Amino acid sequence: MALIECIGVRKQFKTGVVAIHNMDLSIDKGEFVFVIGPTGCGKSTLINMLYRKERPTAGKIFIGGLDVSKLRNNKVYKLRRRIGVVFQDYKLLSRLNVYENVAFTLEVLGLPKDEIHTKVLKVLDLVGLKGRTKNYPHELSGGEQQRVAIARSIVNGPKILICDEPTGNLDPKTSDEIMEVLEEINKLGTTIIMVTHDIDIVNRVKNRTIQLDNGRILKDYAKGTYNNESSKNS
Amino acid sequence: MRAVRILSRNIRDAFKSVFRNFSLSLASITCITITLIVVSLSLLLTFNVNNFTDKVEKNATIVAFLDKKITEEEKETLRQEMQKIDNVDTIAYESKSEIQEKMMNESETYRNIMSGWSEEENPLQDTYLLKVKDVDFIGETASKIQELKGVGTVKYGEGMIEQLVSIFDLVRKGSYIVVIALIVVTAFLIANTIKITIFSRRREIEIMRLVGASNINIKIPFVIEGLVLGLLGAILPILLTTYGYTAMYNRFDGKLFSDLITLIIPQPFIFQVSGVLILIGIVVGMFGSLRAVKKYLKS
Predict the structure, then answer these.
(1) Burial (Cβ within 10 Å: 0-12, 13-18, ≥19) of residue B147
(2) CATH of the domain at A162
């Protein structure tokens, strides 16, 4: 079984709007997948269901064999410990410094202090922020804040990293730097699903790209076959 | 080991959080303080009113004036018969010479009049003074005593005592309702203030959920924080209760307006009231937090 498996997934909101129509999707371990599409096509709803912020109305979602669609509210933490999530707005705690923000994940899991220290420094080194441990989020640039968010989401070694427009607020140069970090994480074995509007990144990286439209998969481009022409339609 | 680490982290974070979010914590603490002061005042008032009414009720006495020709033996039989009546609690005997002595000690006028009376000339009557177990049935008990052989007349403050008892009953029930209503309002007020505090930290809760904190892991620091807020909020009301009540007691010498209304002795009363205040502060603080945080554990 693939690492992520969506079978006949449908999501209808209470308002009656159907965001996802009978979607089948399979993502293997170690993949780096882009999800693209116009605003309102269901990208965010899809990833919200992957980390169980939303439940599908019908169908099943398996993450590493765990049936996410059946997961009860008080058991969601079991899933969240297996996956990391990164957002466009970073979602950092402003009252905690860089080190504390990253350590937060491990403290919540109850790891010993020494282990937390080692892991946090290692991951901050990976995202290139080893020298900024004492800084607070407001003292960092957008790119640096996003690196902290990425560090926080991967510090406990999740199998999957979900990124919801992680470069949405960043300039092209900083976006490229963030992509380098993400690619590095992917090389270390983490499966990444990234929602983006940034066609330049998609074209440059040439990974598998899933194009959504109106809650359906319009095209599923295999690795390296994505081209500018199709992106113009998205 | 892991659980201990998580718990100690939760306790540390709860204290940190109270000071980190100082302005909001202060708002909660102030709200708890003010409402607990009101609760404290109503508790002090209620218990004192109850104490006073209890005292008056306990002091209600039936006076049975005995026939002039009653013999010592008949008096004893009468006492035994009185004791058989269910509602009779204690019986005290006062001979007419004892009453005469008492009255003479009470007033100079009585002394002048009564000092010349010999045992035979004394027109007063020997009496039995009876305390009842339940003042509600004092009238009935008095009638039963009246029927006994050897009893002349029976007095117990007819009419007035029943009226007083029913008024006291009303005051007592009313004060309980007021205290309970106040506690409910307090709980509501505190819970809502804490809700606002937690609303400002919903992002923190969201991130905790995101990084894999279980619901119980998220709830515990907030519940402990509620407990800390409740404790801190109870400090001033407790100090005011302890020192304020003791000062008032000493100032009025334990009596209010007249000798009839005596105040409850401060110790251990103030400690009991303080205990209730701490309990309300802690329980409401904890449950207020719990209720508020639950709302954000749904996504």
Answers:
(1) exposed
(2) 3.40.50.300
